[in-house]
Amino acid sequence: MRRYSEMVFTAVVFSLSLALFFFVPSRSILERSGYQIARGRVLSTDDSMVEQYGVVNQGDQTAVVQMDDDGRSITCYNTLVGDPEVDFLYSAGDRVLISRTAAASGEMMEQLVGPDRLKIILFLSLLFAGMVIAVAGWTGIKALLSFTFTILVIWKVLIPGALAGIPPVLLSLGVVTVLTATITLLVGGLNRKGLSAFLGGEFGLLTACALALLVSRYFHLPGLNRPFAKSLVFVEPSLDVYGLFISGIFISASGAVMDLAMDIAAATHEIHYHHPKITMRRLFSSALTVGQAVIGTMTTTLLLAYSGGFIMMLMYFEVQKIPLLVMLNSTSVASEILVTLVGSFGLVTVAPFTALIAAFLYAKHQP
User: Which letter does DSSP use for residue 154 in this model?
Assistant: First the structure.
Protein backbone atom coordinates (compact mmCIF):
# COMPACT_ATOMS: atom_id res chain seq x y z
CA MET A 1 0.00 0.00 0.00
CA ARG A 2 2.82 2.39 0.88
CA ARG A 3 4.62 1.56 -2.36
CA TYR A 4 1.41 2.24 -4.29
CA SER A 5 0.98 5.63 -2.55
CA GLU A 6 4.53 6.65 -3.45
CA MET A 7 3.96 5.66 -7.08
CA VAL A 8 0.78 7.74 -7.17
CA PHE A 9 2.56 10.73 -5.61
CA THR A 10 5.41 10.41 -8.10
CA ALA A 11 2.89 10.30 -10.95
CA VAL A 12 1.19 13.43 -9.60
CA VAL A 13 4.48 15.35 -9.44
CA PHE A 14 5.33 14.16 -12.95
CA SER A 15 1.94 15.33 -14.24
CA LEU A 16 2.37 18.72 -12.57
CA SER A 17 5.82 19.03 -14.14
CA LEU A 18 4.38 18.33 -17.59
CA ALA A 19 1.60 20.84 -17.02
CA LEU A 20 4.09 23.49 -15.97
CA PHE A 21 6.36 22.71 -18.91
CA PHE A 22 3.59 23.19 -21.47
CA PHE A 23 2.01 26.12 -19.65
CA VAL A 24 2.63 29.24 -21.73
CA PRO A 25 2.00 32.62 -20.07
CA SER A 26 0.81 35.60 -22.06
CA ARG A 27 3.09 36.33 -24.98
CA SER A 28 5.63 39.11 -24.63
CA ILE A 29 5.72 42.24 -26.75
CA LEU A 30 8.67 40.77 -28.67
CA GLU A 31 6.76 37.57 -29.46
CA ARG A 32 3.66 39.48 -30.55
CA SER A 33 5.83 41.53 -32.92
CA GLY A 34 7.08 38.38 -34.65
CA TYR A 35 10.40 38.08 -32.83
CA GLN A 36 12.04 34.70 -33.52
CA ILE A 37 15.28 32.91 -32.69
CA ALA A 38 17.15 30.88 -35.30
CA ARG A 39 20.41 28.96 -35.21
CA GLY A 40 23.42 28.96 -37.50
CA ARG A 41 27.17 28.50 -37.92
CA VAL A 42 29.81 31.19 -38.47
CA LEU A 43 31.58 30.77 -41.84
CA SER A 44 34.00 33.69 -41.60
CA THR A 45 34.62 36.90 -39.66
CA ASP A 46 36.15 40.31 -40.34
CA ASP A 47 37.82 41.90 -37.30
CA SER A 48 39.38 44.88 -39.09
CA MET A 49 37.04 47.33 -37.31
CA VAL A 50 37.70 45.88 -33.85
CA GLU A 51 40.11 47.72 -31.53
CA GLN A 52 41.58 46.06 -28.44
CA TYR A 53 42.21 48.10 -25.30
CA GLY A 54 43.81 45.91 -22.64
CA VAL A 55 41.32 43.13 -21.88
CA VAL A 56 38.36 44.72 -23.68
CA ASN A 57 37.38 44.99 -27.34
CA GLN A 58 35.43 47.78 -29.00
CA GLY A 59 34.10 48.27 -32.49
CA ASP A 60 32.12 46.22 -34.99
CA GLN A 61 32.88 42.65 -36.02
CA THR A 62 31.39 41.37 -39.26
CA ALA A 63 30.37 37.69 -39.39
CA VAL A 64 29.08 35.61 -42.29
CA VAL A 65 26.64 33.04 -40.89
CA GLN A 66 25.03 30.05 -42.57
CA MET A 67 21.49 29.53 -41.29
CA ASP A 68 20.42 26.03 -40.24
CA ASP A 69 16.78 26.26 -41.33
CA ASP A 70 17.11 27.44 -44.93
CA GLY A 71 20.86 27.20 -45.63
CA ARG A 72 21.19 30.90 -46.50
CA SER A 73 24.42 32.76 -45.83
CA ILE A 74 23.79 36.13 -44.19
CA THR A 75 26.05 38.91 -42.97
CA CYS A 76 25.61 40.01 -39.35
CA TYR A 77 27.26 42.72 -37.32
CA ASN A 78 28.52 42.15 -33.80
CA THR A 79 28.84 45.44 -31.91
CA LEU A 80 31.37 45.28 -29.06
CA VAL A 81 30.73 47.85 -26.33
CA GLY A 82 33.84 47.21 -24.23
CA ASP A 83 32.13 45.14 -21.55
CA PRO A 84 33.64 41.62 -21.30
CA GLU A 85 30.52 40.48 -19.43
CA VAL A 86 28.33 40.88 -22.52
CA ASP A 87 30.76 41.06 -25.44
CA PHE A 88 31.77 37.96 -27.41
CA LEU A 89 34.24 37.81 -30.29
CA TYR A 90 33.17 35.11 -32.76
CA SER A 91 35.41 32.81 -34.79
CA ALA A 92 34.79 30.66 -37.87
CA GLY A 93 33.00 27.45 -36.92
CA ASP A 94 31.20 28.86 -33.86
CA ARG A 95 27.56 27.91 -33.38
CA VAL A 96 25.41 31.03 -32.88
CA LEU A 97 21.88 32.22 -32.21
CA ILE A 98 20.26 34.73 -34.58
CA SER A 99 17.31 36.99 -33.76
CA ARG A 100 14.74 37.76 -36.45
CA THR A 101 12.56 40.85 -36.16
CA ALA A 102 10.17 42.29 -38.73
CA ALA A 103 10.99 45.92 -39.55
CA ALA A 104 8.34 48.55 -40.31
CA SER A 105 9.04 48.09 -44.03
CA GLY A 106 8.25 44.40 -43.76
CA GLU A 107 11.88 43.39 -44.18
CA MET A 108 13.21 40.75 -41.77
CA MET A 109 16.06 42.08 -39.64
CA GLU A 110 18.57 39.41 -38.51
CA GLN A 111 21.11 40.00 -35.74
CA LEU A 112 23.59 37.97 -33.70
CA VAL A 113 22.34 37.17 -30.19
CA GLY A 114 25.15 35.07 -28.77
CA PRO A 115 26.87 31.67 -28.86
CA ASP A 116 24.69 28.57 -29.15
CA ARG A 117 25.47 26.50 -26.05
CA LEU A 118 22.50 24.15 -26.33
CA LYS A 119 24.46 21.02 -27.33
CA ILE A 120 26.92 21.15 -24.44
CA ILE A 121 24.09 21.93 -22.01
CA LEU A 122 22.12 18.92 -23.23
CA PHE A 123 25.20 16.69 -23.14
CA LEU A 124 26.04 17.58 -19.54
CA SER A 125 22.38 17.30 -18.50
CA LEU A 126 22.04 13.81 -19.99
CA LEU A 127 25.37 12.74 -18.50
CA PHE A 128 24.27 14.00 -15.09
CA ALA A 129 20.90 12.24 -15.37
CA GLY A 130 22.55 8.98 -16.39
CA MET A 131 24.99 9.06 -13.49
CA VAL A 132 22.26 9.83 -10.96
CA ILE A 133 20.10 6.94 -12.20
CA ALA A 134 23.09 4.57 -12.35
CA VAL A 135 24.08 5.35 -8.76
CA ALA A 136 20.69 5.80 -7.08
CA GLY A 137 18.30 3.77 -9.24
CA TRP A 138 14.62 4.49 -8.55
CA THR A 139 15.54 7.08 -5.92
CA GLY A 140 17.71 8.77 -8.55
CA ILE A 141 14.74 8.96 -10.92
CA LYS A 142 12.69 10.64 -8.20
CA ALA A 143 15.60 12.99 -7.47
CA LEU A 144 15.74 14.00 -11.14
CA LEU A 145 11.99 14.54 -11.11
CA SER A 146 12.28 16.81 -8.08
CA PHE A 147 15.18 18.65 -9.78
CA THR A 148 13.06 19.23 -12.89
CA PHE A 149 10.00 20.21 -10.87
CA THR A 150 12.05 22.80 -8.96
CA ILE A 151 13.31 24.40 -12.17
CA LEU A 152 9.80 24.55 -13.63
CA VAL A 153 8.24 26.04 -10.49
CA ILE A 154 10.88 28.77 -10.35
CA TRP A 155 10.59 29.44 -14.09
CA LYS A 156 6.81 29.25 -14.48
CA VAL A 157 5.52 30.29 -11.02
CA LEU A 158 8.04 32.26 -8.95
CA ILE A 159 9.39 34.58 -11.65
CA PRO A 160 6.05 35.39 -13.37
CA GLY A 161 4.39 35.83 -9.98
CA ALA A 162 7.02 38.31 -8.79
CA LEU A 163 6.80 40.22 -12.08
CA ALA A 164 3.00 40.33 -11.69
CA GLY A 165 3.39 42.22 -8.42
CA ILE A 166 2.82 39.48 -5.84
CA PRO A 167 4.78 40.35 -2.64
CA PRO A 168 8.08 38.52 -3.26
CA VAL A 169 8.69 37.36 0.33
CA LEU A 170 5.26 35.73 0.67
CA LEU A 171 5.45 34.31 -2.85
CA SER A 172 8.95 32.91 -2.33
CA LEU A 173 8.06 31.45 1.06
CA GLY A 174 5.04 29.71 -0.46
CA VAL A 175 7.06 28.40 -3.40
CA VAL A 176 9.90 27.13 -1.20
CA THR A 177 7.38 25.46 1.12
CA VAL A 178 5.80 23.62 -1.81
CA LEU A 179 9.23 22.62 -3.12
CA THR A 180 10.39 21.45 0.31
CA ALA A 181 7.28 19.30 0.73
CA THR A 182 7.49 17.88 -2.78
CA ILE A 183 11.21 17.11 -2.71
CA THR A 184 11.39 15.62 0.78
CA LEU A 185 8.27 13.51 0.34
CA LEU A 186 9.26 12.45 -3.16
CA VAL A 187 12.80 11.44 -2.21
CA GLY A 188 12.16 10.36 1.38
CA GLY A 189 8.79 8.79 0.70
CA LEU A 190 5.28 9.26 2.08
CA ASN A 191 6.34 8.06 5.50
CA ARG A 192 7.79 9.24 8.78
CA LYS A 193 11.16 9.89 7.18
CA GLY A 194 9.73 12.18 4.52
CA LEU A 195 7.44 13.94 6.99
CA SER A 196 10.28 14.51 9.47
CA ALA A 197 12.50 15.95 6.75
CA PHE A 198 9.72 18.27 5.54
CA LEU A 199 8.79 19.61 8.98
CA GLY A 200 12.40 20.06 10.04
CA GLY A 201 13.37 21.74 6.78
CA GLU A 202 10.34 24.03 6.91
CA PHE A 203 11.26 25.13 10.44
CA GLY A 204 14.76 26.02 9.26
CA LEU A 205 13.41 27.99 6.29
CA LEU A 206 10.96 29.92 8.47
CA THR A 207 13.81 30.73 10.83
CA ALA A 208 15.99 31.99 7.98
CA CYS A 209 13.11 34.06 6.57
CA ALA A 210 12.23 35.62 9.93
CA LEU A 211 15.86 36.39 10.73
CA ALA A 212 16.43 37.95 7.30
CA LEU A 213 13.42 40.23 7.76
CA LEU A 214 14.51 41.12 11.30
CA VAL A 215 18.18 41.99 10.81
CA SER A 216 18.42 43.06 7.16
CA ARG A 217 17.28 46.60 7.94
CA TYR A 218 20.38 47.11 10.09
CA PHE A 219 22.62 46.24 7.15
CA HIS A 220 21.17 49.13 5.10
CA LEU A 221 21.15 47.11 1.90
CA PRO A 222 18.74 48.18 -0.87
CA GLY A 223 19.29 44.96 -2.82
CA LEU A 224 20.42 46.76 -5.96
CA ASN A 225 23.92 45.30 -5.72
CA ARG A 226 22.73 41.86 -6.83
CA PRO A 227 23.50 40.84 -10.46
CA PHE A 228 21.12 42.44 -12.99
CA ALA A 229 19.17 44.22 -10.22
CA LYS A 230 19.71 47.70 -11.66
CA SER A 231 18.84 46.53 -15.17
CA LEU A 232 15.67 44.87 -13.86
CA VAL A 233 14.56 48.03 -12.04
CA PHE A 234 15.14 50.04 -15.19
CA VAL A 235 12.75 47.74 -17.09
CA GLU A 236 10.27 47.17 -14.21
CA PRO A 237 10.57 50.17 -11.84
CA SER A 238 7.61 49.07 -9.69
CA LEU A 239 9.26 45.82 -8.56
CA ASP A 240 10.00 45.29 -4.86
CA VAL A 241 13.74 44.75 -5.28
CA TYR A 242 14.37 44.75 -1.54
CA GLY A 243 11.77 42.00 -1.07
CA LEU A 244 13.42 40.01 -3.86
CA PHE A 245 16.77 40.41 -2.09
CA ILE A 246 15.30 39.08 1.19
CA SER A 247 13.65 36.21 -0.69
CA GLY A 248 16.94 35.28 -2.29
CA ILE A 249 18.51 34.82 1.14
CA PHE A 250 16.29 31.95 2.28
CA ILE A 251 15.85 30.54 -1.23
CA SER A 252 19.63 30.19 -1.47
CA ALA A 253 19.75 28.35 1.85
CA SER A 254 16.74 26.10 1.15
CA GLY A 255 18.73 23.39 -0.63
CA ALA A 256 21.24 22.96 2.19
CA VAL A 257 18.41 23.07 4.75
CA MET A 258 16.55 20.26 2.97
CA ASP A 259 19.77 18.30 2.67
CA LEU A 260 20.47 18.49 6.39
CA ALA A 261 16.87 17.67 7.32
CA MET A 262 16.89 14.61 5.05
CA ASP A 263 20.25 13.44 6.46
CA ILE A 264 18.90 13.50 10.02
CA ALA A 265 15.56 11.94 9.07
CA ALA A 266 17.25 9.14 7.12
CA ALA A 267 19.68 8.47 9.98
CA THR A 268 16.79 8.31 12.45
CA HIS A 269 14.98 5.87 10.18
CA GLU A 270 18.02 3.57 9.99
CA ILE A 271 18.60 3.67 13.75
CA HIS A 272 14.98 2.81 14.44
CA TYR A 273 14.99 0.08 11.78
CA HIS A 274 17.93 -1.72 13.40
CA HIS A 275 16.87 -0.96 16.99
CA PRO A 276 13.06 -0.77 16.90
CA LYS A 277 12.73 -0.77 20.70
CA ILE A 278 14.98 2.25 21.22
CA THR A 279 13.48 4.93 23.45
CA MET A 280 12.55 8.38 22.17
CA ARG A 281 15.23 10.01 24.32
CA ARG A 282 18.03 7.82 22.97
CA LEU A 283 16.71 8.15 19.43
CA PHE A 284 16.66 11.94 19.73
CA SER A 285 20.19 11.93 21.16
CA SER A 286 21.50 9.74 18.32
CA ALA A 287 19.75 11.81 15.64
CA LEU A 288 21.07 15.04 17.15
CA THR A 289 24.61 13.61 17.17
CA VAL A 290 24.28 12.97 13.44
CA GLY A 291 22.98 16.49 12.97
CA GLN A 292 25.89 17.99 14.90
CA ALA A 293 28.39 16.17 12.69
CA VAL A 294 26.66 17.31 9.50
CA ILE A 295 26.37 20.91 10.72
CA GLY A 296 30.13 20.91 11.25
CA THR A 297 30.68 20.59 7.50
CA MET A 298 27.43 21.98 6.10
CA THR A 299 27.97 25.53 7.35
CA THR A 300 31.39 25.55 5.69
CA THR A 301 29.80 24.10 2.56
CA LEU A 302 27.38 27.00 2.50
CA LEU A 303 30.23 29.48 2.89
CA LEU A 304 32.21 27.88 0.06
CA ALA A 305 29.14 27.75 -2.19
CA TYR A 306 28.64 31.50 -1.77
CA SER A 307 32.32 32.47 -1.79
CA GLY A 308 32.80 31.07 -5.29
CA GLY A 309 30.64 33.89 -6.59
CA PHE A 310 32.52 36.75 -4.93
CA ILE A 311 36.13 35.51 -4.82
CA MET A 312 37.19 38.00 -7.53
CA MET A 313 35.53 40.81 -5.60
CA LEU A 314 37.65 39.96 -2.56
CA MET A 315 40.73 39.80 -4.76
CA TYR A 316 39.90 43.28 -6.07
CA PHE A 317 39.73 44.63 -2.51
CA GLU A 318 43.05 42.95 -1.75
CA VAL A 319 44.73 44.42 -4.84
CA GLN A 320 43.45 47.88 -3.89
CA LYS A 321 44.72 47.35 -0.30
CA ILE A 322 41.37 48.48 1.08
CA PRO A 323 41.28 48.30 4.91
CA LEU A 324 39.44 45.34 6.39
CA LEU A 325 36.92 47.56 8.21
CA VAL A 326 36.02 49.36 4.98
CA MET A 327 35.80 46.07 3.09
CA LEU A 328 33.45 44.49 5.65
CA ASN A 329 31.19 47.55 5.52
CA SER A 330 31.04 47.70 1.73
CA THR A 331 27.63 46.93 0.26
CA SER A 332 28.79 43.92 -1.73
CA VAL A 333 30.65 42.20 1.11
CA ALA A 334 28.01 43.03 3.72
CA SER A 335 25.27 41.51 1.56
CA GLU A 336 27.25 38.28 1.19
CA ILE A 337 27.88 38.17 4.95
CA LEU A 338 24.15 38.57 5.56
CA VAL A 339 23.26 35.80 3.11
CA THR A 340 25.83 33.40 4.55
CA LEU A 341 25.06 33.99 8.23
CA VAL A 342 21.28 33.91 7.86
CA GLY A 343 21.49 30.70 5.84
CA SER A 344 23.76 29.20 8.49
CA PHE A 345 21.29 30.12 11.23
CA GLY A 346 18.63 28.19 9.32
CA LEU A 347 20.94 25.19 9.13
CA VAL A 348 21.76 25.23 12.83
CA THR A 349 18.11 25.41 13.90
CA VAL A 350 16.93 22.67 11.55
CA ALA A 351 19.09 19.99 13.21
CA PRO A 352 17.54 19.81 16.71
CA PHE A 353 14.02 20.35 15.42
CA THR A 354 14.28 17.59 12.79
CA ALA A 355 15.83 15.25 15.36
CA LEU A 356 13.01 15.96 17.81
CA ILE A 357 10.25 15.50 15.20
CA ALA A 358 11.81 12.29 13.84
CA ALA A 359 12.37 10.82 17.31
CA PHE A 360 8.78 11.58 18.29
CA LEU A 361 7.28 10.08 15.11
CA TYR A 362 9.35 6.91 15.25
CA ALA A 363 8.97 6.42 19.00
CA LYS A 364 5.19 6.61 18.58
CA HIS A 365 5.38 3.44 16.44
CA GLN A 366 7.25 1.13 18.78
CA PRO A 367 6.65 -2.59 18.07
Answer: I
Strands (E), the chain: 36-46, 50-53, 56-67, 73-81, 95-102, 108-115
Helix, strand, or coil (residue 224): coil
* 77 and 186 inside one domain: no
For residues 111 and 232, state if they share a domain.
Answer: no
The DSSP line for 58-71 is: EEEEEEEEEETTT-
Closest C-alpha among 160, 162, 175, 212 to residue 335 = 212
| Sequence-ordered list of residues with C-beta below 8 angstroms from that of 36, at least 6 positions apart, any chain | 99, 100, 101
| Number of domains into which the chain is organized | 2
How confident is the model over 6-42, as pLDDT tens digits?
788 888 999 999 998 887 665 554 455 556 888 999 9
Q: DSSP letters along 260-310, please? A: HHHHHHHHHHHHHHH-TT--HHHHHHHHHHHHHHHHHHHHHHHHHHHHHHH
The answer to whether 133 and 147 have CB atoms below 8 angstroms apart is no
The last residue of a domain, from among 82, 98, 116:
116
Helix (H, G, I), strand (E, B) or coil at 350: helix
pTM equals: 0.82
Q: What is the CATH number of the domain that holds 104?
A: 2.40.50
Structural domain contains residue 10 = no
Backbone angle region of 104, left / alpha / beta, with phi > 0 → left and psi within -120 to 50 → alpha:
alpha
Q: Give the residue numbers spanning the domain of 111.
A: 33-116
**pLDDT tens-place string over residues 137-156:** 888 898 899 999 999 999 99
How many Å apart are CA 277 and CA 283, to the nearest integer? Answer: 10
